[in-house]
Write a structure and sequence with these properties.
The protein is an all-alpha fold and 448 residues long. The chain has helices at 2-19, 23-40, 45-79, 81-91, 98-113, 116-133, 138-155, 160-169, 173-198, 209-218, 227-234, 242-259, 265-274, 283-286, 295-313, 318-331, 333-348, 351-362, 369-377, 391-400, 411-427.
Length: 448
């Protein structure tokens, strides 16, 4: 019966993907199916609700971060912060180094925002417009944009993915961020070298002055517009919690929007809740953000948490956990994490499930929870972006207007797991030891 339930769920999921329906409907159907399976196995409805609620509480950490990030992206648009970064980034563009500079601009912006979608929908759209006008290969330019966008999605303290990983593994967010920066430095440098080598082959042949002019007309490009981003970067360095850093950035952005950009207070509140509405030639690029933009993603995260707790509670995953543990013994922990993260993304089509399912399946193979967190960051967070039908891939590709043919050019997505595979022993010297054959889950630390 369990196999039949899984196949039914996968059929509903495939139907949603083919029809372009909200993937949450498939997760809701799966939740109902596995709830019925739990009842069939003798669990009471109260017990099943408690199982589902346990993981849902864990997912609330990520949901809170997502809602705050939605408000921040709306306010950063309203305050001119994103426009300021794009404008000055464009001024740095040297035509023979376009791909390299596009990668670095997106990497810097994604580290501040912590969201690949936010970067793809703003700087990504502008850079792709410049690339198309200037005769740069669309695929190469899109690869540079995506690589930069996912740099912060993986390793920024403001990233909902990083917060979710820290939450489900019971590890410290800031300790993880430090580890992620160190382990992410080799692929970052390799990406920079790769795009530096590709840039002369795909130079920007012309720059559209209308784009720069439209940016200058849309906002007052004062240095104060950079203040919200600086607070987001600097406050965590002084061990200020990420939530307080977000709130501080939001307050600064609201102040700049009112006093520098001359927006009314109701307009600022609207930008935070419903998204910023720009006018003029770049309205399609500069509009967006807001809490509303994160509602569907939050629903997916919540359903994923309920679904994940139910699967664990009724012990559906136990046979698979044993197989994964056996793979850890034969292949090693990180190669198994790669297969687990990629498989989860291919079946469930999003980062959130890939992260939560990876933690459930891999936990018994790890004695070091920090190692588990970093392994998931270098596999389950990035690999979904290489799956064309995954939300992590299809959404940013649609934003910048290219197809999955651009994914091989997104070097950071495959260089990060590849370089970590060969360098992990330097960061976790005991990482090569084989785990004991035990499926007992590790005790969770309560550090968030």
């Amino acid at each position: 019966m369990t196999i039949g339930v899984f196949l039914t769920f996968l059929g509903v999921l495939l139907l949603c993907i083919v029809k372009g329906w909200f993937v949450g409907w498939a997760l809701l159907a799966g939740l109902a199916l596995f709830f019925a399976l739990g009842l069939r196995r003798g669990y009471s409805a109260k017990e099943l609700c408690a199982m589902a609620g346990d993981k849902a509480r864990t997912s609330l950490v990520a949901i809170t971060a997502l809602l705050l990030m939605g408000a921040i992206t709306g306010l950063w648009r309203a305050s001119g912060t994103i426009t300021y970064c794009i404008h000055h980034g464009m001024r740095l563009i040297t035509p023979p180094l376009f791909l390299l500079i596009a990668f670095l601009i997106c990497a810097a912006l994604s580290y501040m925002l912590g969201t690949s979608f936010g970067v793809a929908s703003t700087a990504g759209v502008v850079l792709m417009a410049l690339a198309r006008f200037g005769g740069v290969s669309e695929l190469a330019a899109a690869g540079a944009v995506l690589s930069g966008a996912f740099f912060g999605d993986r390793g920024s303290p403001a990233s909902s993915s990083a917060i979710l990983v820290a939450s489900v593994t019971g590890t410290d967010l800031y300790a993880n961020v430090k580890r992620m920066f160190v382990t992410g430095l080799p692929p970052l440098l390799l990406c920079a070298a790769l795009y530096a080598a590709l840039s002369p082959r795909h130079p920007l042949q012309a720059v559209d002055p209308a784009v720069a002019g439209a940016v200058e007309q849309a906002f007052v490009l004062s240095w104060m517009a950079l203040l919200p981003a600086l607070l987001m970067l600097v406050l965590p360095l002084f061990h200020v919690s990420i939530r307080l850093a977000m709130l501080g950035s939001m307050a600064a952005a609201a102040g700049v929007a009112v006093w520098v950009q001359r927006l009314s207070l109701p307009e600022v509140v609207r930008a935070a809740l419903l998204g910023y509405q720009a006018e003029g030639e770049l309205a399609a690029v500069l509009s967006g953000g807001g809490v509303r933009s994160m509602v569907s993603t939050c629903l997916v995260v919540l359903l994923t948490g309920l679904y994940s707790g139910l699967l664990e509670g009724i012990r559906v995953l136990e046979p698979l956990q044993k197989e994964v543990l056996s793979l850890c013994r034969r292949l090693g922990r990180f190669p198994t994490a790669i297969l687990t993260g990629l498989g989860s993304a291919m079946v469930f089509c999003n980062q959130t499930i890939a992260v939560m399912l990876s933690e459930q399946l891999l936990r018994s193979g790890y004695s070091d929870r920090t190692e588990l967190a970093i392994d998931i960051e270098n596999s389950g967070v990035l690999l979904p972006a290489l799956v064309p039908w995954s939300i992590a891939s299809s959404v940013p590709l649609a934003m910048i207007g290219v197809g999955p043919e651009a994914l091989p050019y997104a070097a950071l997505l495959w260089l990060t797991p590849l370089t970590y595979l060969f360098t992990k022993k330097y960061f976790f010297p005991a990482g090569g030891a084989r785990p004991a054959l035990s499926s007992a889950p590790q005790e969770r630390q309560d550090q968030l």
